[in-house]
Amino acid sequence: MTHGAPCKVLIVDDSAVVRQMLSEILDSDPGIEVVGTAADPLLAREKIKRLAPDVITLDVEMPRMDGLAFLENLMRLHPLPVVMISSLTERGADTTLQALALGAVDFVSKPKLDVARGLQGYADEIIAKVKMAARSRVRPLARPNPPRITLGAVAPVAPRSIQFRTTDRLIAIGASAGGTEALRVVLEGMPADAPAVVMTQHLPATFSTPFAERLDRHSAMSVREATDGEAVLPGHAYLPPGGKHLRIIRDGARWRCRIDDGPPVNRHKPAVDVLFRSVAESAGANAIGAILTGMGDDGARGLLDLKNAGAPTLVQDEATSVVWGMPGAAFKLGAAEEMVPLERIAERLMALARG
Protein backbone atom coordinates (compact mmCIF):
# COMPACT_ATOMS: atom_id res chain seq x y z
CA MET A 1 0.00 0.00 0.00
CA THR A 2 1.59 3.28 -1.09
CA HIS A 3 1.54 6.10 1.41
CA GLY A 4 -1.55 8.26 1.00
CA ALA A 5 -3.33 5.82 -1.34
CA PRO A 6 -6.60 4.39 -0.05
CA CYS A 7 -6.38 0.90 1.40
CA LYS A 8 -7.85 -1.69 -1.00
CA VAL A 9 -10.32 -4.11 0.57
CA LEU A 10 -11.84 -7.38 -0.67
CA ILE A 11 -15.01 -8.50 1.15
CA VAL A 12 -15.52 -12.28 1.38
CA ASP A 13 -18.98 -13.27 2.62
CA ASP A 14 -21.62 -15.65 1.34
CA SER A 15 -24.45 -13.22 2.18
CA ALA A 16 -25.26 -10.68 -0.54
CA VAL A 17 -26.87 -8.42 2.09
CA VAL A 18 -23.72 -8.41 4.24
CA ARG A 19 -21.48 -7.82 1.19
CA GLN A 20 -23.63 -4.83 0.23
CA MET A 21 -23.72 -3.45 3.79
CA LEU A 22 -19.96 -3.81 4.34
CA SER A 23 -19.26 -2.25 0.93
CA GLU A 24 -21.35 0.81 1.81
CA ILE A 25 -19.78 1.18 5.27
CA LEU A 26 -16.18 0.84 4.05
CA ASP A 27 -16.65 2.93 0.89
CA SER A 28 -17.99 5.78 3.04
CA ASP A 29 -14.43 6.38 4.26
CA PRO A 30 -12.12 8.21 1.82
CA GLY A 31 -9.14 6.18 3.12
CA ILE A 32 -10.67 2.88 1.99
CA GLU A 33 -11.57 1.52 -1.45
CA VAL A 34 -13.60 -1.69 -1.76
CA VAL A 35 -12.01 -3.28 -4.85
CA GLY A 36 -14.27 -6.33 -4.92
CA THR A 37 -16.48 -8.82 -3.14
CA ALA A 38 -16.58 -12.61 -3.28
CA ALA A 39 -19.25 -15.10 -2.21
CA ASP A 40 -16.95 -18.11 -1.82
CA PRO A 41 -13.24 -19.08 -1.55
CA LEU A 42 -12.78 -19.97 -5.21
CA LEU A 43 -13.95 -16.54 -6.33
CA ALA A 44 -11.96 -14.96 -3.50
CA ARG A 45 -8.74 -16.68 -4.57
CA GLU A 46 -9.13 -15.55 -8.14
CA LYS A 47 -9.92 -11.96 -7.06
CA ILE A 48 -6.96 -11.82 -4.66
CA LYS A 49 -4.63 -12.59 -7.58
CA ARG A 50 -6.31 -10.10 -9.88
CA LEU A 51 -7.10 -7.22 -7.50
CA ALA A 52 -4.16 -7.42 -5.03
CA PRO A 53 -6.15 -6.17 -2.00
CA ASP A 54 -4.35 -4.75 1.06
CA VAL A 55 -6.92 -6.21 3.48
CA ILE A 56 -9.61 -8.90 3.37
CA THR A 57 -12.73 -9.02 5.51
CA LEU A 58 -13.86 -12.61 6.02
CA ASP A 59 -16.90 -14.13 7.68
CA VAL A 60 -15.68 -17.40 9.21
CA GLU A 61 -19.09 -18.89 9.81
CA MET A 62 -20.49 -19.50 6.35
CA PRO A 63 -22.84 -22.40 5.71
CA ARG A 64 -21.46 -23.28 2.28
CA MET A 65 -17.76 -22.88 2.92
CA ASP A 66 -15.18 -23.35 5.64
CA GLY A 67 -13.78 -19.90 6.39
CA LEU A 68 -11.06 -21.36 8.65
CA ALA A 69 -9.74 -23.70 5.93
CA PHE A 70 -9.71 -20.79 3.48
CA LEU A 71 -7.87 -18.60 6.03
CA GLU A 72 -5.30 -21.30 6.77
CA ASN A 73 -4.47 -21.74 3.06
CA LEU A 74 -4.32 -17.99 2.56
CA MET A 75 -1.94 -17.42 5.50
CA ARG A 76 0.35 -20.17 4.29
CA LEU A 77 0.42 -19.32 0.59
CA HIS A 78 -0.40 -15.63 0.33
CA PRO A 79 -0.32 -13.97 3.77
CA LEU A 80 -2.55 -10.89 3.90
CA PRO A 81 -4.09 -8.85 6.73
CA VAL A 82 -7.52 -10.37 7.47
CA VAL A 83 -10.25 -8.84 9.65
CA MET A 84 -12.78 -11.48 10.71
CA ILE A 85 -16.49 -10.70 10.81
CA SER A 86 -17.80 -12.86 13.64
CA SER A 87 -20.97 -13.49 15.56
CA LEU A 88 -21.16 -13.04 19.32
CA THR A 89 -22.24 -16.63 20.02
CA GLU A 90 -20.05 -19.06 22.00
CA ARG A 91 -19.44 -20.98 18.78
CA GLY A 92 -18.59 -17.73 17.00
CA ALA A 93 -16.13 -16.95 19.81
CA ASP A 94 -14.43 -20.30 19.45
CA THR A 95 -14.16 -20.00 15.66
CA THR A 96 -12.85 -16.44 15.94
CA LEU A 97 -10.15 -17.46 18.47
CA GLN A 98 -9.08 -20.22 16.04
CA ALA A 99 -8.97 -17.64 13.22
CA LEU A 100 -6.76 -15.34 15.32
CA ALA A 101 -4.47 -18.33 16.00
CA LEU A 102 -4.22 -18.87 12.22
CA GLY A 103 -3.08 -15.27 11.75
CA ALA A 104 -6.17 -13.06 11.34
CA VAL A 105 -5.22 -9.58 12.58
CA ASP A 106 -8.44 -8.73 14.39
CA PHE A 107 -12.18 -9.25 14.36
CA VAL A 108 -15.39 -7.26 14.49
CA SER A 109 -18.54 -8.73 16.02
CA LYS A 110 -21.69 -8.33 13.95
CA PRO A 111 -24.35 -6.30 15.71
CA LYS A 112 -28.00 -7.33 15.64
CA LEU A 113 -28.56 -5.74 12.26
CA ASP A 114 -32.00 -4.29 13.03
CA VAL A 115 -30.49 -1.74 15.41
CA ALA A 116 -29.56 1.34 13.39
CA ARG A 117 -27.51 2.78 16.24
CA GLY A 118 -25.68 -0.51 16.74
CA LEU A 119 -24.77 -0.41 13.07
CA GLN A 120 -23.20 3.06 13.34
CA GLY A 121 -20.92 1.94 16.20
CA TYR A 122 -20.12 -1.14 14.17
CA ALA A 123 -19.32 1.00 11.11
CA ASP A 124 -16.81 3.12 13.04
CA GLU A 125 -15.17 0.02 14.52
CA ILE A 126 -14.84 -1.85 11.23
CA ILE A 127 -13.43 1.22 9.43
CA ALA A 128 -10.83 1.70 12.21
CA LYS A 129 -9.90 -2.00 12.26
CA VAL A 130 -9.58 -2.30 8.46
CA LYS A 131 -7.26 0.74 8.37
CA MET A 132 -5.24 -0.63 11.29
CA ALA A 133 -5.02 -4.04 9.57
CA ALA A 134 -3.60 -2.39 6.45
CA ARG A 135 -0.64 -1.18 8.56
CA SER A 136 -0.26 -4.34 10.63
CA ARG A 137 2.40 -7.03 10.42
CA VAL A 138 1.30 -10.39 9.08
CA ARG A 139 3.48 -13.47 9.39
CA PRO A 140 3.23 -16.45 7.04
CA LEU A 141 1.66 -19.40 8.83
CA ALA A 142 4.20 -22.07 9.68
CA ARG A 143 3.09 -25.68 9.56
CA PRO A 144 1.12 -26.36 12.72
CA ASN A 145 3.27 -27.69 15.56
CA PRO A 146 2.94 -31.38 16.38
CA PRO A 147 0.27 -31.85 19.06
CA ARG A 148 1.54 -31.23 22.57
CA ILE A 149 1.47 -34.42 24.54
CA THR A 150 1.73 -33.25 28.14
CA LEU A 151 2.41 -30.05 29.97
CA GLY A 152 5.45 -31.78 31.42
CA ALA A 153 7.03 -31.29 28.02
CA VAL A 154 7.09 -27.52 28.49
CA ALA A 155 10.60 -26.49 29.48
CA PRO A 156 10.26 -24.59 32.76
CA VAL A 157 11.84 -21.16 32.64
CA ALA A 158 12.64 -21.11 36.36
CA PRO A 159 13.97 -23.83 38.63
CA ARG A 160 10.96 -25.67 40.01
CA SER A 161 12.13 -25.36 43.61
CA ILE A 162 11.35 -21.63 43.86
CA GLN A 163 8.42 -21.07 46.18
CA PHE A 164 6.74 -17.71 45.84
CA ARG A 165 4.84 -16.16 48.72
CA THR A 166 1.80 -14.05 47.91
CA THR A 167 3.74 -10.95 48.89
CA ASP A 168 6.51 -11.68 46.39
CA ARG A 169 5.51 -10.61 42.91
CA LEU A 170 2.38 -9.86 40.93
CA ILE A 171 2.66 -9.73 37.13
CA ALA A 172 0.11 -7.51 35.35
CA ILE A 173 -0.31 -7.76 31.55
CA GLY A 174 -2.51 -5.81 29.14
CA ALA A 175 -3.20 -6.54 25.45
CA SER A 176 -5.62 -5.84 22.62
CA ALA A 177 -5.41 -6.52 18.85
CA GLY A 178 -3.06 -9.49 18.29
CA GLY A 179 -3.11 -10.13 22.03
CA THR A 180 -5.03 -13.41 22.12
CA GLU A 181 -2.02 -15.11 20.54
CA ALA A 182 0.61 -12.94 22.27
CA LEU A 183 -0.81 -13.85 25.69
CA ARG A 184 -0.76 -17.53 24.72
CA VAL A 185 2.94 -17.27 23.80
CA VAL A 186 3.77 -15.54 27.11
CA LEU A 187 1.78 -17.97 29.27
CA GLU A 188 3.24 -20.98 27.44
CA GLY A 189 6.66 -19.77 28.58
CA MET A 190 5.74 -19.49 32.27
CA PRO A 191 6.45 -22.35 34.70
CA ALA A 192 3.72 -23.91 36.85
CA ASP A 193 5.02 -22.14 39.97
CA ALA A 194 5.34 -18.67 38.41
CA PRO A 195 4.15 -15.65 40.39
CA ALA A 196 0.45 -14.81 39.99
CA VAL A 197 -0.46 -13.16 36.68
CA VAL A 198 -3.42 -10.77 36.24
CA MET A 199 -4.39 -9.86 32.68
CA THR A 200 -6.74 -7.70 30.68
CA GLN A 201 -7.39 -8.46 27.01
CA HIS A 202 -9.96 -6.41 25.07
CA LEU A 203 -12.66 -8.93 24.09
CA PRO A 204 -16.46 -9.03 23.82
CA ALA A 205 -18.14 -10.48 26.92
CA THR A 206 -19.08 -13.79 25.25
CA PHE A 207 -15.46 -14.48 24.30
CA SER A 208 -14.01 -14.47 27.82
CA THR A 209 -14.86 -18.06 28.83
CA PRO A 210 -13.62 -19.79 25.65
CA PHE A 211 -10.52 -17.54 25.74
CA ALA A 212 -9.68 -18.46 29.36
CA GLU A 213 -10.16 -22.17 28.53
CA ARG A 214 -7.91 -21.84 25.48
CA LEU A 215 -5.11 -20.20 27.50
CA ASP A 216 -5.48 -22.76 30.27
CA ARG A 217 -4.90 -25.61 27.76
CA HIS A 218 -1.67 -23.96 26.59
CA SER A 219 -0.13 -23.07 29.94
CA ALA A 220 1.45 -24.93 32.86
CA MET A 221 -0.18 -22.25 35.05
CA SER A 222 -3.85 -22.51 35.95
CA VAL A 223 -5.67 -19.88 33.86
CA ARG A 224 -9.19 -18.84 34.87
CA GLU A 225 -11.78 -16.10 34.85
CA ALA A 226 -11.52 -14.24 38.14
CA THR A 227 -14.39 -14.27 40.64
CA ASP A 228 -15.06 -11.37 42.98
CA GLY A 229 -13.14 -11.61 46.25
CA GLU A 230 -11.01 -14.64 45.37
CA ALA A 231 -7.41 -14.67 46.61
CA VAL A 232 -4.67 -14.16 44.01
CA LEU A 233 -2.37 -17.19 44.17
CA PRO A 234 1.03 -18.06 42.63
CA GLY A 235 0.82 -20.48 39.71
CA HIS A 236 -2.52 -18.93 38.69
CA ALA A 237 -3.38 -16.44 35.95
CA TYR A 238 -6.61 -14.42 36.10
CA LEU A 239 -8.71 -12.79 33.37
CA PRO A 240 -11.70 -10.50 33.86
CA PRO A 241 -15.03 -12.31 33.40
CA GLY A 242 -17.12 -11.28 30.36
CA GLY A 243 -17.34 -7.55 29.83
CA LYS A 244 -16.29 -6.45 33.33
CA HIS A 245 -13.21 -4.70 34.70
CA LEU A 246 -10.75 -6.60 36.88
CA ARG A 247 -9.13 -4.74 39.78
CA ILE A 248 -6.75 -6.04 42.44
CA ILE A 249 -7.20 -5.04 46.07
CA ARG A 250 -4.95 -5.57 49.08
CA ASP A 251 -6.36 -7.58 51.95
CA GLY A 252 -3.84 -7.83 54.80
CA ALA A 253 -0.88 -9.83 53.50
CA ARG A 254 -2.60 -10.98 50.32
CA TRP A 255 -4.22 -9.69 47.15
CA ARG A 256 -7.78 -10.35 46.03
CA CYS A 257 -9.68 -9.94 42.78
CA ARG A 258 -12.40 -7.31 42.61
CA ILE A 259 -14.84 -7.55 39.69
CA ASP A 260 -15.94 -4.06 38.72
CA ASP A 261 -19.05 -3.42 36.62
CA GLY A 262 -18.36 0.31 36.31
CA PRO A 263 -18.43 2.28 33.03
CA PRO A 264 -15.97 1.65 30.17
CA VAL A 265 -12.56 3.37 30.48
CA ASN A 266 -10.77 4.48 27.27
CA ARG A 267 -13.91 3.08 25.55
CA HIS A 268 -13.01 -0.40 26.87
CA LYS A 269 -14.54 -2.74 29.40
CA PRO A 270 -12.44 -4.50 30.59
CA ALA A 271 -9.80 -1.74 30.44
CA VAL A 272 -6.08 -2.24 31.01
CA ASP A 273 -5.76 1.11 32.84
CA VAL A 274 -8.29 -0.02 35.46
CA LEU A 275 -6.27 -3.18 36.20
CA PHE A 276 -2.85 -1.46 36.13
CA ARG A 277 -3.90 1.42 38.42
CA SER A 278 -5.30 -0.99 40.99
CA VAL A 279 -2.12 -3.10 40.86
CA ALA A 280 0.06 0.03 41.26
CA GLU A 281 -1.97 0.94 44.33
CA SER A 282 -2.16 -2.49 45.97
CA ALA A 283 1.18 -4.07 44.95
CA GLY A 284 3.44 -1.11 44.11
CA ALA A 285 7.05 -2.15 43.71
CA ASN A 286 6.09 -5.83 44.13
CA ALA A 287 4.35 -5.68 40.74
CA ILE A 288 5.73 -6.08 37.22
CA GLY A 289 3.82 -4.45 34.34
CA ALA A 290 3.80 -5.42 30.65
CA ILE A 291 1.84 -4.20 27.62
CA LEU A 292 1.58 -6.46 24.58
CA THR A 293 0.39 -5.76 21.03
CA GLY A 294 -2.80 -3.71 20.69
CA MET A 295 -4.61 -0.84 19.01
CA GLY A 296 -5.06 2.50 20.80
CA ASP A 297 -3.46 3.68 24.04
CA ASP A 298 -5.31 1.86 26.85
CA GLY A 299 -2.83 0.89 29.58
CA ALA A 300 -0.17 3.54 28.80
CA ARG A 301 -1.04 5.78 31.76
CA GLY A 302 -1.60 2.77 34.01
CA LEU A 303 1.86 1.44 33.11
CA LEU A 304 3.32 4.84 34.01
CA ASP A 305 1.54 4.60 37.40
CA LEU A 306 3.17 1.17 37.90
CA LYS A 307 6.60 2.54 36.99
CA ASN A 308 6.12 5.50 39.34
CA ALA A 309 5.15 3.04 42.09
CA GLY A 310 8.54 1.33 41.66
CA ALA A 311 7.46 -1.63 39.52
CA PRO A 312 9.67 -2.79 36.62
CA THR A 313 7.80 -2.20 33.32
CA LEU A 314 8.18 -3.46 29.77
CA VAL A 315 6.38 -3.40 26.44
CA GLN A 316 6.43 -5.77 23.47
CA ASP A 317 8.73 -4.45 20.73
CA GLU A 318 7.40 -3.11 17.45
CA ALA A 319 8.87 -5.84 15.25
CA THR A 320 6.92 -8.66 16.96
CA SER A 321 3.68 -6.70 17.59
CA VAL A 322 0.74 -7.12 15.23
CA VAL A 323 -0.16 -3.51 16.10
CA TRP A 324 2.23 -1.27 18.01
CA GLY A 325 -0.49 1.09 19.24
CA MET A 326 -0.72 0.34 22.97
CA PRO A 327 2.95 -0.64 23.50
CA GLY A 328 4.04 2.34 21.36
CA ALA A 329 1.85 4.79 23.32
CA ALA A 330 3.27 3.51 26.63
CA PHE A 331 6.84 3.72 25.28
CA LYS A 332 6.33 7.31 24.01
CA LEU A 333 4.89 8.27 27.41
CA GLY A 334 8.07 7.03 29.10
CA ALA A 335 6.14 4.32 30.95
CA ALA A 336 8.26 1.38 29.75
CA GLU A 337 11.74 0.67 31.04
CA GLU A 338 12.44 -1.82 28.26
CA MET A 339 11.18 -3.17 24.94
CA VAL A 340 11.25 -6.94 24.57
CA PRO A 341 10.45 -9.23 21.59
CA LEU A 342 7.41 -11.44 22.22
CA GLU A 343 9.30 -14.74 22.44
CA ARG A 344 11.52 -13.37 25.23
CA ILE A 345 8.83 -11.75 27.39
CA ALA A 346 8.06 -14.79 29.61
CA GLU A 347 11.74 -15.31 30.36
CA ARG A 348 12.18 -11.57 31.10
CA LEU A 349 9.16 -11.48 33.44
CA MET A 350 10.56 -14.47 35.36
CA ALA A 351 14.00 -12.86 35.61
CA LEU A 352 12.45 -9.65 36.97
CA ALA A 353 10.33 -11.69 39.40
CA ARG A 354 13.45 -13.43 40.73
CA GLY A 355 15.35 -10.15 40.89
Note down, in words, how this protein is organized:
- The protein has 355 residues and is of the alpha/beta class.
- The chain has two domains: 7-135, Response regulator (Rossmann fold), CATH 3.40.50.2300; 158-354, Rossmann fold.
- It has eleven helices and 16 strands.
- It has a seven-stranded parallel sheet, with helices on both faces. A five-stranded parallel sheet has the order 2-1-3-6-7, sandwiched between helices.
- Helix 6 packs across helix 11.
- The chain is elongated and about 60 Å long.
* Cα gyration radius (Å): 20 Å
CATH class designation of the largest domain: Alpha Beta
Order of helical and strand elements: EHEHEEEHEHEHEHEHEEEEHEHEHEH
Question: If strands are numbered along the chain, what order do they take across the biggest sheet?
Answer: 10-11-9-8-14-15-16
**CATH topology assignment of the largest domain:** Rossmann fold
EC number: 3.1.1.61, 3.5.1.44
Main location: cytoplasm
Protein name: Protein-glutamate methylesterase/protein-glutamine glutaminase
Enzyme class: hydrolase
